[in-house]
Design a protein that fits this description.
Elements lengths: L5 E2 L3 E9 L3 E8 L4 E8 L7 H15 L9 E9 L2 E9 L3 E3 H7 L4 H20 L2 E2 L8 E4 L4 E3 L6 E2 L32 H17 L9 H10 L10 H10 L11 H9 L13 H16 L3 H18 L5 H16 L3 H11 L7 H21 L9 H10 L2
Antiparallel strand pairs: 1-2, 2-3, 3-4, 4-6, 5-6, 7-9, 8-11, 9-10
Length: about 400
């Protein structure tokens, strides 16, 4: 069919939006309801192939039975005969936007926005899984980003009902899905359920955060081997909770992954956005440097400990967060070595800034209050000594109180 053709007496084809090996998508106008829609046509060479037709019908039924703002709505399905043979078509909501794959080709999205989109995908998967539908082809090409920055999942063409056989292979022994995103169980004849979608989500989450997939290979066989055996590099996120979540989503055993998309969405909502650059130290490296400074202090080199911790705290606050326990504990360490280096006044100022961030940590707060009383008395009796000379207290206080 061509631009301007009227499909089934109702849908005027206006502009071709894209095509793949399976179908062609057109922007069209529903002349009955006077609204813009997307029309997906089964490519003519597949119209006589029963498997392709069944996949097309399955997409219509699977997506048509789902109702969620993050799943593209299916309006209609039909088939007609014309001079070229039988034409199967699917009419869907027209999303004004681009596929996530197109977004990623241009640049890595702002991290908070990327996490928001992945939360939208979780919402869509939760709706599908609750209806017993496994998508089985979650990937950036099947996530549309609208002009309103809302993500919507499309293409349920290879979806499977959980009540049906859950094998990863078709009856012809062909792997179902897109190889860079396929969970290990999808490569064999094991059971495939919603946790395979969560694995694919983990691959996509890694990709939108790091700018690359966690596993890369040149051939399907290479991907199969890596998905089955290779542990991906840990995601370098500011919030370790994100790296932990991605590692769980990419677990080889489905039982080691989060149980539901709703759980993943809840965990995403609590994550602090931000990624480490290649030159940034990891939180573990920062903590080792803090431990080294503490050892200098214990050995009597109080000034050396102060120097190291003063240089370390801005990175801790930036990478781990100003209210992170590691940052607060290191700040407490700095206050103690300041006091023992003859600067109890600077220690008192820092300890006061610590208190608001410890409201949920009664034991740590009690320790700070004890040290504050002690060194305040020392400062009043002997003088406060030299000031810190660096605005660490302001940096920490703004972060702790802003939580």
């Amino acid at each position: 069919m061509r631009q301007g053709d009227l499909l089934d007496g109702r849908y005027r084809l206006a502009e071709q939006l894209g095509k793949g090996g399976f179908g062609v998508v057109w922007k069209a106008v529903d002349t009955v309801l006077d609204r813009e829609v997307a029309v997906k046509l089964l490519r003519a060479e597949h119209a006589t192939d029963q498997d392709s037709v069944q996949r097309f019908v399955r997409e219509a039924k699977a997506a048509g039975g789902l109702n969620d703002r993050h799943i593209v709505t299916v309006h209609d399905y039909g088939r007609i005969l014309d001079g070229e043979g039988e034409i199967h078509y699917l009419v869907m909501e027209l999303v004004q936007g681009r596929a996530l794959s197109a977004v990623l080709k241009e640049e890595r999205p702002e991290h908070a926005l990327a996490l928001k989109w992945m939360g939208h995908v979780c919402k869509a998967l939760d709706a599908a899984h609750r209806k017993g539908v496994v998508h089985r082809d979650i990937k950036p090409e099947n996530v549309m980003i609208g002009a309103d920055q809302r993500a919507k999942v499309v293409d349920f063409g290879i979806a499977r009902l959980l009540s049906q056989s859950g094998a990863g292979l078709t009856s012809a022994g062909v792997v179902v899905g897109t190889v860079p995103y396929l969970a290990p169980e999808c490569w064999g004849d094991g059971v495939v359920d919603g946790r395979a979608d969560l694995y694919a989500l983990g691959v996509m989450l890694y990709e939108v955060c790091a700018g690359r997939r966690p596993l890369r290979a040149d051939t399907p066989m290479g991907y199969m081997t890596k998905h089955a055996t290779e542990i991906p590099p840990r995601l370098r996120s500011l919030d370790p909770a994100l790296a932990d979540l991605v590692a769980e989503l990419l677990a080889k055993d489905p039982d080691d992954r989060p149980a539901t998309a709703a759980e993943v969405r809840a965990r995403l909502r609590g994550i602090r956005p931000g990624m480490l650059s290649p030159d940034d130290p990891s939180p573990e490296q920062l903590r080792r440097r803090a431990d080294q400074a503490w050892r200098h202090g214990e050995e009597g080199a109080h000034g050396k400990a102060v120097e190291m911790l003063t240089a370390l705290l801005p990175d801790l606050a930036r990478i781990c967060g100003p209210a992170d326990p590691r940052t607060l504990r290191t700040c407490h360490d700095l206050a103690l070595w300041l006091a023992r280096d003859g600067r109890p006044g600077a220690a008192v100022a820092l300890l006061r800034e610590l208190l608001p961030g410890l409201a949920a940590e009664p034991a740590a707060r009690a320790d700070v209050e004890r040290d504050l009383r002690h060194w305040q008395a020392v400062a009043e009796r002997e003088g406060g000594g030299e000031a810190l000379g660096t605005d660490l207290a302001g940096l920490l206080g703004g972060g702790a109180q802003g939580r």
